[in-house]
Amino acid sequence: MSDKSKIAIQKIQSENVQKAVYKALELINAGEIMKKDQVILLKPNILGAKPPERAATTHPEVVKAVIHWVKKYNPKKVYLCDSSGTSKPGATELAMKESGLKALCDEESVECIPFEKTERKIYTVDDPLEINEITSSILLEKADIIINLPKIKTHGQCLLTCCIKNMFGTILLGNKARTHAKSALIDRFSAALADIYSVSKPHLTVIDGYLCQEGKGPSAGDVVKLDVIIAGYDPVALDTVVCQITGMNPNDVIHLKKAEDKRLGTMNMDNIEILGNSVQDVYRKFKIPKIRPVSAPLPRWLANYLGNLIFRATVKFNPDKCRLCATCWENCPVDAIIPPKEIKKGNIPKWNKKKCITCYCCVELCPYEAVDFKINYAKNVIFSWTGIITIAIITILSFLLFLWVASIS
Ligand code: SF4
Ligand code: SF4
Fold it and tell me: What is the 3-state secondary structure (H, E, C) of the chain?
């Protein structure tokens, strides 16, 4: 028998999401891990309070198909849990309602509960890359089967959010901001993501590739109707295949490499067996966010330095869209956003460039898509120390050349 990571790709035909989910699960023999009377934990992506058609949260049709599939095995109890990106109390409940997942759970007698409302437990990370302990829900331990239900979206900081990044939602509210602040560099944050995934380690993953987001994902991007379901067990292989399907370079998604280093799966396509449809059958190049050029064939420190130098983004607030709801300044992990003195239409928050760690949380969490990142490449280079020194050297050399030409003529 092949010991390759098996990944099933299934096109959604004629809007029949359930048929695609069932077929994908059959292709990877997912029924083999299911038994009667199990406690099942479903972990969708419920980033924020957005409706399903905005493609920021796992689509209810995909979740519904998985619930129906799970019910065939007579589970003792099914939970659907997440902790939204915003730390405000009640934010996850609101996101569950707006995403359509609360209503679905009520219909299907599934317990829909924010992780932060369950009993807490501190987990120790084995062979940590960045975090030693993770505070999450007791349900990660109590569940017999954890099913990861991520969505395919581009991500301003991490490039891709799918299997591994989705489990960041298992840590509770304010702890997310603390992780961003403590592990601000993309290298360290990616290592933290791999550590977090290693604690929850889902038994099965069903990827929602029905409606996806490209460009300014994961919440303000353009919707892509990719019409695909992908299922498997190996998160690194699954995310690598998603990169192939969406035209991204898996080496640019640093948390994949970190997760591979942690032996959570493989990025090597030779070790991955694709079942059902091929990558080419569902290929659609996604518009990717303009983040730092991490795949440059340079030592990591130099790539990070140049990335920070050239690709450093400026946060911009759109006064026409901003409703001064406070989400951005309440959730910025390093207090780099200051509310305006007067809360009145037309005023916008202020951004503190020096404090900002480019974590992308404000863009991701603004409910009104009023925050944007702008990158002025030339300005970044010219106004950096490297730029100033380069310009000074060029000026001195030009002056010396001028003197030399003048002296011989
Ligand atoms: S930018 Fe967005 S999150 Fe920040 S105050 Fe305005 S509407 Fe709220
Ligand atoms: S201003 Fe935005 S990008 Fe910068 S640290 Fe705060 S939340 Fe992150």
Answer: CCCCEEEEEEECCCCCHHHHHHHHHHHCCHHHHCCCCCEEEEEECCCCCCCHHHCCCCCHHHHHHHHHHHHCCCCCEEEECCCCCCCCCCHHHHHHHHCCHHHHHHHHCCEECCHHHCCEEEEECCCCCCCCEEEEECHHHHCCEEEEECEEEEECCCEEECHHHHHHHHCCCHHHHHHHHHCCCHHHHHHHHHHHHHHHCCCEEEEEEEEEEECCCCCCCEEEEEEEEEEECCHHHHHHHHHHHHCCCHHHCHHHHHHHHCCCCCCCHHHEEEEECCHHHHCCCCCCCCCCCCCCCCCHHHHHHHHHHHCCCEEEECCCCCCCCCHHHHHCCCCCEECCCCCCCCCCCEECCCCCCCCCHHHHHCCCCCEEEECCHHHHHHCCHHHHHHHHHHHHHHHHHHHHHHHHC
Output the CA 145–ligand 1 centroid distance in Å. 38
Report the DSSP pairing between strands 111-112 and 159-161.
Answer: unpaired
Ligand 1 test: best mutation among 344, 361, 366, 372, most atoms within 8 Å of CB?
A: 366
CATH architecture of 5-282: 3-Layer(aba) Sandwich (3.40)
Question: What would the pLDDT profile of 133-180 be if each residue is shown by its tens digit?
Answer: 999 999 999 999 999 999 999 998 899 999 999 999 999 878 898 899
Pocket test for ligand 2, best of 87, 185, 315, 371 (most atoms within 8 A of CB): 315
Nearest to 87 by CA among 174, 2, 156, 162: 174
Predicted TM-score (pTM) of this structure? 0.89
pLDDT digits (tens, 9 = 90+) for 231-276: 999 999 999 999 999 999 999 999 999 999 999 999 999 999 999 9
Q: Alpha carbon 185 to chain centroid distance?
A: 16
Q: Separation of 356 CA from ligand 2 center, angstroms?
A: 5
Helix axes 186-200, 254-261, angle to 10 degrees: 50
Strand partners, 207: 230
The CATH number of 312-375 is 3.30.70.20
